[in-house]
């Protein structure tokens, strides 16, 4: 199979919507999350022979083992989506080191580890496409989200540098930077208040972001790009 796509964070929210769209387009999906039950449910909903894997992206040995398992069962990963992410929003002075590290390790180190594992195989194949899910907050900053912003801003620098590093191997690396999207991550936000600052006057749906992710995965002449999908939010920030 030469259309194997691994979606880290594919059990819920944005990653799950990406997996659904990719499955509709004929890709073989590896749905990855820490909670195997959740990943299995997402893979099962897709129908077909898609598989679920349990992995904590912040643990190098776990990432390595997961890529080995995917290769054994589905084949080489040609398409990688990093949608695994967490937030621990609070003012910096109230943020403990544990919360800083968990965000850095999941959002930034996790994507570095999965990209490293994927790129090793992609280099041998001389092809591959990666999309890392950043955030408009990583570009613009937001009070109460300094550490989260740093992880997402760091992801842009990482992705652009990696895009340069692997372009001659015919591997592309891009970023999608969403605004507010209806998922578990945003369920406690005050939507009525926040959407006043969004020119399109609504939160995004996971499917809105998934379309942009799939566009970048499949666009053969786009690399090192950051595609903002935020209903115009950044225009007001
Ligand atoms: P959800 O909370 O809905 O889903 C998060 C996904 O990541 C789940 O599948 C979760 O599964 C997985 N995950 C979390 N931690 C780990 C880990 N350590 N290892 C492996 N998988 C993990 O989040 P969203 O869909 O909202 O977010 C997806 C991405 O989009 C994140 O990177 C987020 O920062 C980003 N984003 C979201 C926005 C929004 O408004 N929702 C806005 C901008 C960016 P499990 O818990 O089982 O591990």
TrEMBL record:
Major localization class: mitochondrion
**UniProt-recorded Gene Ontology molecular function terms:** 3-oxoacyl-[acyl-carrier-protein] reductase (NADPH) activity; NADPH dehydrogenase (quinone) activity; quinone binding
Q: Where in the cell is it found?
A: Mitochondrion matrix
Q: Which InterPro entries match?
A: NAD(P)-bd_dom_sf, Sc_DH/Rdtase_CS, SDR_fam
Instruction: Give the UniProt record's GO annotations in the biological process aspect.
Output: fatty acid biosynthetic process
Quick one: a GO cellular component term?
Answer: mitochondrial matrix
Pathway given in the UniProt record: Lipid metabolism; fatty acid biosynthesis
Q: What are the entry keywords?
A: Fatty acid biosynthesis, Fatty acid metabolism, Lipid biosynthesis, Lipid metabolism, Mitochondrion, NAD, NADP, Oxidoreductase
Which top class of enzyme applies to this chain? Answer: oxidoreductase
EC number(s) in its UniProt entry?
Answer: 1.1.1.100, 1.6.5.10
Which SUPFAM superfamilies does UniProt cross-reference here? NAD(P)-binding Rossmann-fold domains
How it assembles, according to the record, is:
Homotetramer (in vitro). Heterotetramer with HSD17B8; contains two molecules each of HSD17B8 and CBR4. Does not form homotetramers when HSD17B8 is coexpressed, only heterotetramers (in vitro).
**What family does the database annotate?**
Belongs to the short-chain dehydrogenases/reductases (SDR) family.
Query: What function is annotated for this protein?
Result: Component of the heterotetramer complex KAR (3-ketoacyl-[acyl carrier protein] reductase or 3-ketoacyl-[ACP] reductase) that forms part of the mitochondrial fatty acid synthase (mtFAS). Beta-subunit of the KAR heterotetramer complex, responsible for the 3-ketoacyl-ACP reductase activity of the mtFAS, reduces 3-oxoacyl-[ACP] to (3R)-hydroxyacyl-[ACP] in a NADPH-dependent manner with no chain length preference, thereby participating in mitochondrial fatty acid biosynthesis.
Name of the molecule in the record: 3-oxoacyl-[acyl-carrier-protein] reductase
Q: Which organism is it from?
A: Camelus ferus (Wild bactrian camel)
